[in-house]
Amino acid sequence: MSKDTITLTDNTTGKQIELPILRGTKGAPTVDVRSLYKELGYFTYDPGFMSTASCRSAITFIDGAKGILMYRGYPIEVLAEHSNYLEVCFLLLNGELPTREELNEFTSIIQDHTMLHEALQNFYNGFRHDAHPMAIMVGIVGALSAFYQDSTDVHDARHREISAFRMIAKMPTIAAWSYKYSMGQPFVYPKANLSYTENFLHMMFAVPTEEYTPNPLFVKALDLILTLHADHEQNASTSTVRLTGSSEANPFAAVAAGIASLWGPAHGGANEAVIRMLEEITATGDIQPFIDRAKDRDDSFRLMGFGHRVYKNYDPRAKLIREICHQLVNELGTEKMPLLSTAMELEKVATEDEYFIQRKLYPNVDFYSGIILSAMGIPMNMFTVIFALARTVGWISHWNEMMQDPESRIGRPRQLYVGKDTRDYIPIDQR
Ligand code: CMC
Description:
Blueprint: E1 5-9, E2 16-22, E3 30-31, H1 36-40, E4 60-63, E5 68-71, E6 74-75, H2 76-82, H3 85-94, H4 100-112, H5 120-125, H6 133-147, H7 157-183, H8 196-205, H9 216-228, H10 236-245, H11 251-262, H12 270-284, H13 288-295, H14 316-332, H15 340-351, H16 354-358, H17 366-375, H18 383-404
Antiparallel strand pairs: 1-2, 2-3, 4-5, 5-6
Helix pairs in contact: 3-9, 3-18, 4-7, 6-7, 6-11, 7-8, 7-18, 9-14, 9-18, 10-11, 10-18, 11-18, 12-17, 14-17
Bound molecules: carboxymethyl coenzyme *A (CMC).
Carboxymethyl coenzyme *A binds near residues 235 and 364.
């Protein structure tokens, strides 16, 4: 057996094949199984993709055992301290940090694209007043493809670039307007003199009757939350965007599919579920019954904001969010963040409990983020919308990478069929 292959023996037939081992810059070596079906006639079985690399990617690296997350080679802690969301967007899209000039140009392009076509307001008005903002977002982003038909040639690099700019620029407007619609307040137009994050807060909270200036600490905290959520390699929503895009569907449709996937409580919807759980615990004043329920195999209840498919250590994003939580509580006072002490106590009890230790279950990114968003006055049903806003750049970067990868094919998994074998049709009056 050569060093960079793995030998597979079919014990039924005695036939052997050598499968190449691919080695990336970092991370687990990967067995290339593409020839397996052709050579031996077997599929691989891996529900939930526990051991499957679906693509090559140079965007984000995670070491789940060590709790490491890097965008384009830069550790998340370094970006959180020195960078900001828009610079991170440039980095994710282009692979390198921008020069001052490049960042100025990128910022001005994004500012130029923040407005929505006026006709899109008709789409908002078609929703029920109490529609979930994620439902609105899926609909509006999907509808964008009907407005930008000039840029949906997925094989044209310029079309892909302009679609990326449009989506990154318009997502705060789309998100803020879904909130405004649910509140029955007038839509607030984007302002080019505000930073990306200030602009979002302005469109969320400004009303025509008053001046609105966002609290600088809120801007800092929200910008950090956006930065930490910008990408996370091949998670469910990113894989959905890739799978949708692999059929050469337009990028607006692919991102709308990603938003739909993110909505689930096992993924981006967890931040909303965390707050509901913390409110319930705070109301009862007793953590232990919730811990006991989470450990009970016969109870479907899980500690929301705990555990992760990849991190088997403290999620580095949760650490950074917990730090900014403390800065906020110092400035705002505990009464503005009533759930923080429950969250910290819950974390302590859970991380000292054998069940959670054995299974390597730690707080994930969603555990503390909702507490910050609540302190800013952002309602719970907007949390996942903000996650979607932040993740848009990650989705687009992955879609773009896939479109340029010569090894990309339409995503088409196979299956292990366990249904009926061929049978005879029985006429209805004989059944
Ligand atoms: N509370 C209690 N037990 C848990 C939890 C939890 N939050 N998470 C996992 N477990 C247990 C699970 O019951 C299983 O136990 P056993 O081995 O005895 O059957 C073991 O830990 C492994 O769990 P799993 O379901 O096989 O792990 P997974 O990788 O399939 O699921 C997860 C990962 C994130 C879906 C899961 O940990 C979970 O449901 N967490 C709560 C929801 C949540 O916070 N989601 C946000 C994820 S981070 C942000 C994002 O991705 O969008």
